[in-house]
Amino acid sequence: MRLLIVEDEKRLALSLAKGLTAEGYAVDVVHDGIDGLHRASEGTYDLVILDIMLPGMNGYRVCSTLRAAGHDVPILMLTAKDGEYDEAEGLDTGADDYLTKPFSYVVLVARVKALLRRRGNGGPSPVHTIGDLRVDTAARRVFRGEGEDGEVTLTAKEFAVLEQLVLRVGEVVSKGDILEHVWDFAYEGDPNIVEVYISALRRKLGARLIKTVRGAGYRLEAPR
Fold first, then answer.
1. Is 18 buried (19+), middle (13-18) or exposed (0-12) by CB count in 10 A?
2. DSSP secondary structure string, 109-163?
3. What gap in Å lies between CA 101 and CA 161, rounded to an integer?
4. Which of 115, 116, 185, 207 lies 20 to 30 Å from 94, alpha-carbon distance?
């Protein structure tokens, strides 16, 4: 899943991005309201973490503008202020949740996961079944065979790569698509890192599950 952090305190923003990346999310960061609005308007994010006090355009205006344009992306507002009025104003502009600084990182992650689960409950089932493989994208758990005994332990990045293939089962997913959604737009490392994670998934889930389409990418195939 792809998250956008709009926060002008650069140290805080980068700290949050590092932590959320470790949780398996792809994270982009911008430091002012206008850039935040433009990025969030692209419609490619699963959740926006939005500070209220921003240069260029404050968080209230960013949120209300997104909602007026019909964007329903979950928004978690952050503010150094405290008080019922501020919370009411934030929620009134269309924010889904509100967190007052200073906050616990553990609490922020819990709020993020809750908002993503809530959004998922309004759409398709988060459990995907491909043959004897079951992938629960909400709980971030993977099983082979029947029952709970067949759980396969994946790292956060392994799960994120698998999720991209599961959500487009039967389709070819390019290496670029995986890099964009699992890492982020600023990744400058070796793109062959994707092959490393594909190999790890094949070892854990079976070599025949993920096919390489030469020159195009990878395809997760449901057994016939």
1. exposed
2. HHHHHHHHHHHHHTSS-SEEEETTEEEETTTTEEEESSSSTTEE---HHHHHHHH
3. 33
4. 185
Q: pLDDT tens digits, residue range 56-113?
A: 999 989 999 999 998 889 999 887 755 544 555 555 678 888 888 878 888 888 889 8
Residue 211 Cα to chain centre, angstroms: 25
- When pLDDT is cut at 50, 70 and 90, the band that residue 152 belongs to is very high
Q: Does residue 203 sit in helix, strand or coil?
A: helix
Query: What residues form DSSP beta bridges with 144?
Result: 133
Which two tokens mark 130? 């491909």
* CA 139 centroid distance within chain: 13
CB 52 within 8 A of CB 26: no
Residues of the chain above pLDDT 70, percent? 85
**CB burial string 66-93: b at 16+ within 10 A, e below:** beeeebebbbbbbbeeeeeebbebbeeb
Range with lowest mean pLDDT among 18-22, 70-74, 142-146 = 142-146
